Amino acid sequence: MSVTQRYGDALALDDVSFDVHQGEIHALVGENGAGKSTLIRILTGALHPTSGGLEMDQQALAFSSPRDAQAAGIGVVHQDYHLFPSLTVAQNICGVVPVESARKRLLTDRAAMLKTAVPLMADLGLDVDPHRSAGGLDAAERKLIEIARALVLRPRFLLLDEPTAALEPAETERLLEVISRLRDRGTGIILVTHRLGEICRVADRASALRDGRFVGTVAKSDLSPASLTALMVGTEVVELEGPQHPAGDVTFTLDGLTLRRDTTPIKLEVREREIVAVVGLVGSGCPAVLGALTGATYRKEVQLQLDGSPVRIRTPRDATRLGVGSAPEDRKRFGLVAQQSIADNMALGSLSRWSRFGFTSRRRLSHHAALLRERFDIRCESLDQPVGSLSGGNQQKVLLARGELAGATMFVLHEPSQGVDVLARRSIHEYLLSFAATGGKVVFSSTDVDEVRAIAHRIYVLHAGETAIVFDNTGPSRPTRSQLTQAISADPRLSTPSSNEVPA
Amino acid sequence: MTVTLTDQHLPPGRKKRFGPSFDVVFVPGLIVALAVTLTIASPYFLTSRNLGQILLQGSVLGIVAVGATFVIIGGDLDLSIGYNVALSGVVTAWVMSKSDSWPLGVVAGLAVGLAIGVANGLLTTTLRVPSFVATLGTGTIAGGLALYLTSGVTISGLPDGFGALATTEILGLQSMVWFMLLLLAIGGVVLHRTNFGVQVFATGGNRDAAFLTGVPVDRVRLTNFLIAGACGGAAGVLLTSRVQAGQPTVGASLTLFATAAVILGGSSILGGHGSMIRTAAGLLLIAVVQNGLNILGVEYSLQQVAIGGVFVLAACSEAFRPR
Fold it and tell me: Is the pTM of this model over 0.80?
């Protein structure tokens, strides 16, 4: 295939061409904004290329809608979840887009539906009742349902966009096995992911996009995180090695957070100039800790102390007043007003600063917004463009800029670099370190252990609503990557502690 | 951030409850409570004659609500549906009074209903007008046309045979009631037992996701509006048959009550969630309230106040959830 896509004057894809064989896993990598999403939209029929086109078996393909792409044998599992919670699992798999034979029937043949869905579910290792509603299933189960739905139509090519983004390590493992199995049966798989480790394990080839251009394909023998990163960004990026400045005295404490009966309440201390990571599996309680700090989830039993005096954070507004800047995990839903401009989104937490008698001063706002754009290196055409048109990394920077504008003294961040490319991730890390070094506090949660090790002073590991262990990430006792991973996936209190672990 | 409430996220001392969820039993419970109260208040309530009367009074609303259910679960709104009943009923009467042929009138009435459905469907899909706006426009046009055709006077003097369409008694119930029950049943089967029905839920639940998944979203929405238009046309024809005259003024209240019946039953105004049984429950509640107030001699304007109250009450049912 070879395509070019323009948005107005902007060239989103510049004569990108690459090929996929059946029976291979072809990974597609690129930073945010490199053109992956655009390419996916073209491949799946959601977007027409400005010029160029797709070819399958030497035949040109022209899709006018996702249905055409399906009919041509291209299945897709999108990054966002596309499930319908009030329909049953079986209906989600083979009712929404019925197969040819089912389309002719007047009434749905439920038995036939189950006959299709159940073996497919078993094959994917999806162990749920096909009659239950799809609402309330966990991330991995929902992802598998979407894969099953794509497979019902027996696609020759399957495009998976960040399939493991929301999954736990064990679930990721299972999913990668499923993908490999599909490949072995002859399906051509296009795997789009930021997780380079996964690519190196399962992919047969990997192609990279950079700034809308195709920059090359790596063969299996040459696949490594370093080679892929080099291809994606042109240079190698090395992780930071923890904060280099010392933290001060404890100035903020959270105490009494009780998530389950008969557990020791969670107590969190944050020092002056300190970056604290709160990590744990789904269900361990990390969102509750962060939610208590941002006011997103108020809990009566929680006691907070700032500079020695008790404070209450019942609503996000309370948090903002106390100088808490935050960035939620789902930026598009809970963080940004997608249609509004970058500048307006930045100003959202500090409107009173830009307004007199309720009228916003555009001039002052755009002056400050321009400074922040510079400082955070936000890549955009103009500060007036809608924030929804930015890549994930740039959106995250807008959220940090919002906190900065509001005069935040503490940042509370869920997954600061989820869906963020390597370079933007690095610049976010550097910003947080400098924010802390100059007197700010940061509390964040992340499923990315490299990120946690790169910037945190201390790491709280939670298990089932309790603090299992607190690691000191500075100096000689810094936990290794595998120690940290192990502590997160298995409660260290249940095993014998090793010499490197600092008791909670 | 997705908030998923599992046991572990609940504060201590709260356990997950089992059994049917609260919103499933709320409306039926309210109906039973009302029925018991009315039985005690008036000996007339629990007579077969009155129960038949309840169904008869609710039948036009019921037929309209079947169409509204499709549109609402599909994620749209049809504010034209009551005016559709008015116009198709008036056209039925008008054609009959000119031609003296009642089948011709019936066909004309149904055609008007379908035409409004087509207009709504094309406006919302091809021209991408939000359904709220599009149907508000077409409904206003239809309501105005109905008044114009009748010059505000009801058209009467319809062919004799036509009245039988709605009023023939079968097994103790008028045919009008049977039409409603039949349409509710067919609607339920189509919504819950066909591929199309699944696609209606998908479209209403998440339109973008449905489109990217390969659901013919525009076709589904257009079909929903056609169903609603056809139901409106049928209701108009039957209403004219029952009262033996075109009724130009039924529009506004029918639209609101039909939407209310769907939402009262517990279907989501945002689409993607609901059922035909829920609509039937919502209808029954409205019909019982109206009937009860009639029996108790409450005047019509106050009845509307009471039904508004019940609507608000049911909409807040989440707040009364026992804890």
Answer: no
